[in-house]
Amino acid sequence: MRNLMTLALAACVIGLAAARAAEDNQAFAKIERGRYLAVLGDCTSCHTAPGGKPFAGGAALETPFGALFGPNITPDVATGIGAWTESDLWRAMHEGIGRDGIRLYPAMPYPAYTKVTREDVSAIWAYLRTLEPVRNEVQPNQLRFPFNVRRPTTSTWDLINFKPGVFQPDPAKSDLWNRGAYLVEGLGHCGTCHTPKNITGGDRGGEALRGALLQDWYAPDLTADPRMGIESWSTEDIVRYLKTGANSFDIASGPMAEAVENSTSHMTDADLLAIATYLKDRAPRSANTAIALAHDATRMVAGKAIYEDHCAACHISSGAGVPNLFPRLAQAPLVQSTDPTSLIRVVLIGSRAVATSAAPTAPAMPSFGWNLSDTEIADVLTYVRNTWGNAASAVQPADVTTLRGRVSR
Amino acid sequence: MMRKLPATDVVIVGLGWTGSILAHELTGAGLNVVAIERGPWRDTATDFPPAYAQDELRYRIRHDLFLRPEQLTMTFRNNASQTALPIRSWGSFMPPNGVGGGGVHWNAETWRFLPSDFELRTHLVGRYGEKFLPEDMTIQDWGITYDDLEPHYDKFEYLCGTSGKAGNIKGRIQAGGNPFEGARSREYPTPPQKQPYGPTLFAQAAQEMGYKPFPQPSGNLSQAYTNPLGVTIGPCTYCGFCEWFGCGNYSKASPQTTILPALIRRPNFEARTQCEVSKINLDRSGKRATGVTYVDTSGNEWEQPADLVLLCAFQLFNVHLLLHSGVGKPYDPRTGEGVIGRNYSYQVTSSVGAFFDDKIFNPFIASGSIGMCIDEFNGDNFDHGPHGFVGGGYMGAVQTNGRPIQTGRTPRATPRWGAEWKKAVAKSYLSSYETVTHGSCYSYRDVYLDLDPTYTDRFGRKLMRLTFDFHDNELKMSTYLTDRLAEVTQKMGPRQLEKHPRRGPYDVTVYQTTHTCGGAIMGVEPKTSALNRYLQSWEVPNLFVMGATAFPQNPGYNPTDTVGALAYWAADAIVNRYLKSPGSLVQI
């Protein structure tokens, strides 16, 4: 791996020299590297609409403050970024400031992208310039008042939540670890979903990757927490999950399915190993003291009956699931998360797993919202969260009622 | 007004098992493939999730997954002296509809045919002489051998993950498997399913009588399996909602659970659902298909030109399209000439009901293809000389379901309704058992398919007419097999036993099986077959016809394994022979 890094560094040096000599943004190697970096950054998820032309503007990103749309970043002069310069892109990525000098909304994950090196942004720029210019007017800002008034809102936000600065490697750690850190904290912007947020939507200090709620999905804890995190996953398990969307524990669905499909499944094995190495080194939150509810508690008894009728056919009565097909529920991080939103959601409206070339099955969880009441869903999830070695808080029927109202709209 | 679409390399009519296999193989060879499917897109989680997949009223009684006769049906008569009438509600067989086709709602019994089945006429004439066969029996050799097909059987079974125990690996007989089967190149992909009490008892009885019982090969999997396409199938939960139903938990082999997830990722594949192909188009010479015409749900008519046309619809509808489009000469039973509609065949099933005092069978622990069977009386595995008939079938204790509406076995002489009937049903539900035979149906000169002179469909096309009745040979066979089955069943120790051999005339209103066969059969010469050994039309070489449509007669096994194997065999011929040199692959 050290050799690979040296090679990569050497390539950068050569790239820089060439850039200085000729500013050759049309060199194959640079464009190809930019394409791969755009995959690492999962640009397409926000900037390409379903079924739309690549990077010509995206679908709505629902935030607690209203909807934002990924702008058109093709080189179209009128509606895309055709009039931009490379420095404009650098400023947007590094400082979160658009070409018009106005601050971007942090839905564009510049708090993470700021860590990306100038060379990498330059390669992304070279790649974006090669795209087909698509005329497609996108109105990105569809937030509610007062959040739709951009300048004061975002500059205040930045004061609280944003510190620009390129990633600085930790010399005490391996090259592999540092590459992983660069990807996770930078282009991969994992924390955008997985790091708990403060009231303004900024990252909560010191809680990186400890799990967070976004768009009515709970993005689970990625630290080495033994119950809610991925302590039991080996680096190979993590690599397999990111590469194929499935491993013997779980299958990606929801927003993570999108991230796997558009981004992680296209990453090199070396980069996936780097990410896994870094993630395996994340300290969990302090002592973890949940105690399982008694198996004879009324709600546990009711939940067990519902589980056996509705769930055991796929997830197996032992909660073991079936690898690549039905996620394991026993000792599963997401199942034991503090916040059961994702669990409630998939029981209410179902969810389809990601399909990748390596694991194309794409099984789906069917909806049970039509034949299980809020209390029944709360009971069965309480059972699932407190059986087979699992321990977590009971799910309240009121939580199901609230989410049902939102996701069934 | 018909609108013409841009041409594609291949158009596939019907996206069931064979359409999916051909589409996967041909897109893999780099061709652009458009599949046109009459019914809807179907997917496990949205169309038959475990939350309601097990709904006997909806699927078994009200035929939710099947074609609606209002959309297309056929007329039926038992013989040429009768006037055929339209089938207005399906009975004896269930034409599938929608993506996945019959693969969605089959029981998943995954049998290979015997080597002698493929050379049937040669084999029987060689052993018993020409005169032993009924004069009007029109059985033929297939033009291929079991050995030709073996690698393709293997490929289909490894696609499905079939659960079973081999009886013959490369010529070596294996303990616990079917000793009569043709040699297979390797063991089944997954071990047999677990057997409930009934099949276990049957196997003991059969063993004691000197037979060699073995587990029925099953497409409902004994354990999770990831196939060579990377698609994962789950373990069967023995819920007993297989035939008539889509499998809710991904454990029955179907196009949905084995092949479509990989196929739909291919950029050179496209499926158009809810589009009904009304005609195969031919050029002026009549020797080349130019594509197909189809109609969408708005009634718009579209022409889809293609270099290669693959008929992959259900057996009956393949024949209907051929007849309607004027491909090949229609069969005429008076002269015995013509090939389209010739050699229709079916399946001859029977059963033995047994009522016990001291046994509980738990019939709801079931799968469409668990069971213990014996094959001593199939094909030509026994000497037919003394019996005066040909053909045979497997028999066994096959515990497919204990579904409440239809599982109401009562002993003879029980009233058909009222308190006595209720009492008898309650008493028998757990303690009665039914064993079955699954027998061959050979082909005859007066059994065929043609266009009806009177009735038309919603497009104004003549409906197809089915003329079919059981012949004495088949009824004798059924009586003989049912007697043998009753002997084994008797040894299981029932209080009372009732034989139900198949009796004529054929009743199209009572469900038997959906194994309708023939009508555009494969063979060695264009005079007596519509297709050559590669399932290629003799008449129109850029047209191939898949499925049981090609069976010259029907052996005593379920057809799907052979249908799948023939699809792979044809795909191999198209990719490795036809594409290199388009034209007829067999010169006469």
Structure overview:
The complex is a heterodimer of chains A (409) and B (588). Chain A has 17 helices and 7 strands. With 409 residues, chain A is mostly helical. Chain A folds into 3 domains: 22-159; 175-279, Cytochrome Bc1 Complex, Chain D, domain 2, CATH 1.10.760; 298-407, Cytochrome c-like domain (Cytochrome Bc1 Complex, Chain D, domain 2). A 3-stranded antiparallel β-sheet of chain A has the order 1-2-3, with no helix packed on it. In chain A, helix 4 (86-95) packs across helix 6 and helix 15 packs across helix 17 (397-407). Chain B has a single domain (2-578), classed as 3-Layer(bba) Sandwich (FAD/NAD(P)-binding domain). Chain B contains 14 helices and 24 strands. In chain B, a hairpin with a 6-residue loop joins strand 12 (276-282) and strand 13. In chain B, helix 7 (146-160) packs across helix 14. Chain B starts with a strand and ends in a 10-residue tail after the last helix. Classes of the chains: A mainly alpha (409), B alpha/beta (588). The A-B interface holds A 310, 313-314, 322-326, 350, 352, 355, 357-368, 370-371 and B 43-46, 49-52, 224, 226, 229-235, 237, 239, 248-250, 261-262, 265.
Give the quaternary arrangement of the chains: heterodimer
State Rg of chain A: 22 Å
- Helix count from the secondary structure assignment of chain A: 17
What is the mean pLDDT of chain A? 89
List keywords for this structure.
heterodimer, A: 409 residues, Cytochrome Bc1 Complex, Chain D, domain 2, three-stranded antiparallel β-sheet, 7 strands, 41% helix, globular, disordered N terminus, B: 588 residues, alpha/beta, FAD/NAD(P)-binding domain, eight-stranded mixed β-sheet
